[in-house]
Amino acid sequence: MFAASPPPHTVRPCSSYEHWFSTAVLALVFARYALVLIPAPLVVGQLSEADVGPRVQIDARTGTSGIITGMSRTETPWGPWEPANPAEVAQIFNRSQARWWIAGGYAIEMAVGRSFREHSDIDVLLLRPDQLAVQRVLPSWQWHAADPPGTLRPWQPDEQLPASVHDIWCRPGADQPWRIQVMLDESCAGDWVSRRDQRIRRPVTSLGSVTAEGIPYLKPEIQLFYKAGNPRPKDEIDLAVTLPILTPSQRQWLGDALRLAYGADHAWYARVRSGSF
Predict the structure, then answer these.
(1) pLDDT tens, 224-253?
(2) Is 3.30.460 the CATH number for 54-218?
């Protein structure tokens, strides 16, 4: 005879042995799955640079490093970028008699006086007549010209690049990441001439400032003018952080340049003229 089944939802009391056995089984099951679901504590001392990458950030003014974030490495169709820091760039280009300036986002940070975002590259500005200084200070590196724009080709020794080429990528070797991007700008009779609009010019001697450590950088109003051509999210950040430190004369120059090159309806024009942050 089969014993009658208990009515639905009825709980049958269990013996003390059954209770102990059930409890033990549940404890074993929980312990087993807890080992899978609960991650082990992270012990930083057990991680190497190969695991997490070097934890450094470069101070924009001094070029010195602090251990806080991972080194910027950006993958591109032409190979990875690991930009040199400003101090490295200064050590390289100070060998040359040519005038040069840190440009791009690092120039903005040097003007502001603090680091506030990461950088996927580092830009160095030279005037076109001084272009071969790049080959002189980086004789064993590879140099590639963006010719035509959007592509890269080897830049031959002593080759004078045409006016259509504005960017040069540099790396220590074919198996090494790109470290420095050189930008070529125009000049005429002692004046810097904007390649965006040749009506916009100023004396070469007024292009840059110098950090306390002696690193030359492009003045912020000029760098913001270039960024205004096709602003990206990081350029909007640069504008917002830089506007409060611009002098009235710097805002005046930038506003006039924006109006002349892009029109008074440019999104940045009113903000620059009003000093709105």
Answers:
(1) 999 999 999 999 999 999 999 999 999 999
(2) yes
Count Cα neighbours of 114 within 13 Å in the Cβ-side half-sphere.
Answer: 4
Give the 3-state DSSP-derived string for the chain, with helices as H, strands as E and coil as C.
CCCCCCCCCCCCCCCHHHHHHHHHHHHHHHHHHHHHHCCCCCCHHHCCHHHHCCEEEECCCCCCEEEEEECCCECCCCCCECCCCHHHHHHHHCCCCCCEEEEHHHHHHHHHCCCCCCCCCCEEEEEHHHCCHHHHHCCCCEEEECCCCCCCEECCCCCCCCCCCCEEEEECCCCCCECEEEEEEEEECCEEECCCCCCCEEEHHHCEEECCCCCEEECHHHHHHHHCCCCCHHHHHHHHHHHHHCCHHHHHHHHHHHHHHHCCCCCCHHHHHHCCC
Nearest to 184 by CA among 130, 225, 106: 130
How far apart (Å, rounded) are the C-alpha atoms in residues 68 and 80? 22
What pLDDT, on a 0 to 100 scale, did the predictor assign at position 102? Answer: 98
Per-domain residue ranges for the chain?
54-218, 220-277
